[in-house]
User: What shape does this take?
Amino acid sequence: MSGNLINRIGDRAVYVQISEILEEEIRSLFNPGDALPAENDLANRFSVNRHTVRRAIDELVSQGILERKHGKGTFVLAQINYCIGSGTRFTENLNSLGRNSCSCVLRKLVIPAVSGVAKRLKITAGSPVIWIETLRTVDDQPFCIISHFLPKEGYEKILQAYDGGSLHQFLGSRLGIKLCRTESLITSVLPQGEDASYLKMPAHQPVLRTKSVNMNSKTNQPVEYALTRFRADRTELKIEP
Assistant: This one.
């Protein structure tokens, strides 16, 4: 591990420097689920008081790198094994892993379809589409952001009534539509726009981006094009047919 590389003369706060050292070590030397050394041990190592160490750890907890477990200690946040399959549903998937998940709407607008969205939804470029941006959390930590694009025609009820939770469940219960995933493209990219802020992660670290097309299982017509950005440090994607 790194030594006590703390500059006590410059303008940068000591707790920030400790936080950065710990983050580098966690990413290179620790595995998900590993326990961080006790606060007293870290305080002795860096020759600071426990309050300074605790503030440094708070920074990493707020970024979703560490989690505190009452009475047990501080641990590297475990990765989530997230399955992508033809019938994947976010809420059901996470609940099956014993995780508490939540979805909230960040924005809900009608916009003209750009060429990429139009191509996947098989509509004319410039046609109105419903754009919904949702933030998904797992165990109260940001997990992913999803941009949902659906044709406006036939799906106006989403604009009026959908206000969070599982969009696919909403489509099933309100419109009688069961979706089936037909395509998933996965790439690693840097976060764009406000993604890093919403995901509480550094802007220089990559996200896992998936592009998915979901079809009406009865008519085989495209219903949703979804662009999902997962926190790469929290996610292990499992692809199933």
